[in-house]
Amino acid sequence: MRILRAAGTVLVTVLLVLIGAQAGGSAQTPSARSHSDGLTSAQRAYLDGKIAGLLASDPSARRLSVNTVEVAGHALAIGAPGQRDVQAIGVPASVDAASCPNLYLCGYHNGVTFQYTVCTTHYLSNWTGPGYIFNNQSTGTVTYLYKLNNAVYVKDVAKDPTNREVNWDPVWSIRVC
């Protein structure tokens, strides 16, 4: 009798789910529903894979959040498929004085936000298309974006109160301070 009752409960549950889906109910599977951070399970899996690759490639790298990893002292937020604005989960979407830490150069390229504070030259590989930088370093500190031939492409003096749009195509390196 218990077996029949359990089987009947399962059958009713399955029918209710099917009827709800046909009547315009949610067709999402439980694994595709959003988590509290707004990401689907598929987006989380994508981010987990990307971050796992970064962690495997650099022993000093560490995960900071669901979509953020620190590599060589720089925080990178990684975009998930379907995201329009890439940001570290819980961080404002725009890079400005409120979201870019003091003494940092922050920016965006191809789905990734970055924050540089180490005073050095950062060499880039395959950066193309539009993006931006926000220079929140100490007042008067200069950031240079260089072309392949080491000619200055952009000179940005801190504290610049706005995002500076950048075409990353000719940029081969960034000199912070």
List keywords for this structure.
single chain; seven-stranded antiparallel beta sheet; 177 residues; alpha+beta; four-stranded antiparallel beta sheet; 21% helix
Strand order of the largest sheet: 1-2-3-5-4-7-10
The tally of structural domains comes to 1
Elements, N to C (H/E)? HHEEEEEEEEEEE
Shape descriptor reads: globular
Which spans have pLDDT < 50 for at least 5 consecutive residues? Answer: 1-35, 90-94
Q: Main β-sheet, in a few words?
A: 7 strands, antiparallel
Walk me through the structure.
This protein is 21% helix and 30% strand. Strand 8 (142-146) and strand 9 (152-157) form a beta hairpin. The protein is of the alpha+beta class and 177 residues long. The longest helix has 21 residues, at 2-22. It has a seven-stranded antiparallel beta sheet, with helices on one face. It has a four-stranded antiparallel beta sheet with strand order 6-11-8-9, with no helix packed on it. The chain is globular.
List the helices and strands and how they pair.
Blueprint (H helix, E strand, L loop, with lengths): L1 H21 L18 H17 L4 E4 L2 E4 L2 E5 L25 E6 L2 E5 L4 E3 L6 E7 L5 E5 L5 E6 L6 E4 L5 E4 L1
Antiparallel strand pairs: 1-2, 2-3, 3-5, 4-5, 4-7, 6-11, 7-10, 8-9, 8-11
